[in-house]
Amino acid sequence: MVEKLRLMAVHAHPDDESSKGAATMARYVAEGHDVMVVTCTGGEAGSILNPALDRPEVLANMAEVRREEMAKAAAILGIQHRWLGFVDSGLPEGDPLPPLPEGCFALVPLSESTAPLVGIIREFRPHVIVTYDENGGYPHPDHIRCHEVSVAAFDAAGDPEAYPDAGEPWQPLKLYYSHGFSRAKLMAFHEALLARGLESPYEEWLSHWDANRPDVIDRVTTRVECADYFPQRDEALKAHATQIDPTSRWFAVPLDLQREIWPTEEYELSRSLVDSTIPEDDLFAGVHEKVTA
Hints:
By secondary structure, the chain is α/β, with parallel strands linked by helices. Helix content is 36%, strand content 15%. The protein starts with 5 loop residues before the first strand and ends with a helix.
């Protein structure tokens, strides 16, 4: 009997899991695999981005509200979920940037923030881990720290001398970085919307995009077909009601056009302990054979 495969996605805040790779996770759950999301912080410092919920009582109870939202999103996607338990660092703004708040996730020593993730990895025993690249997807201090913690935990989880009190060692086989916002993808949607005679919300965004800046799409090694699960992805996003305005550009592209123009989610294979042939169309490529053997 082939062992059930397991995927873990490590994210900085609640809602990140629904905007980055949610359709992929829903697909793997539907195929019978186990999927767990680990959320590093509670998102307590997040702003209310949905005008319909921009009320004082919601802001005053942000931590509990975001926990409830995360539980709804997890149920929609069919995933398991764990909190790592650190405090949201917030996104510093201004010139010069203000210092980060004392005790926040980005300032906790790396060895301390890595330890609980190692424990969860050894408990769940994932074959594949997905997180952000070294830039965090965008330069939020929690996203960058999430990358650092995830890479450190990937390396430490299989080492019996590292974190000996965190459970029996377990070595994940592959580490990926998720890549969602590429210029190529936005341009494809922009042009497709205009071709249909629809308004594009991406024109201004693209006009400010430095064409000389490398496009993250060039780093992609793995495209996972998951268009059948875009509706679940959107419902999971909407479950994070304080963070997602249902009238925003998140939902500007009709689902049938998304399926036609860009039916995949994209990843970069960073580490692999199995035979990997690039390009891939499956995060478990090579893992099936390893586990069966």
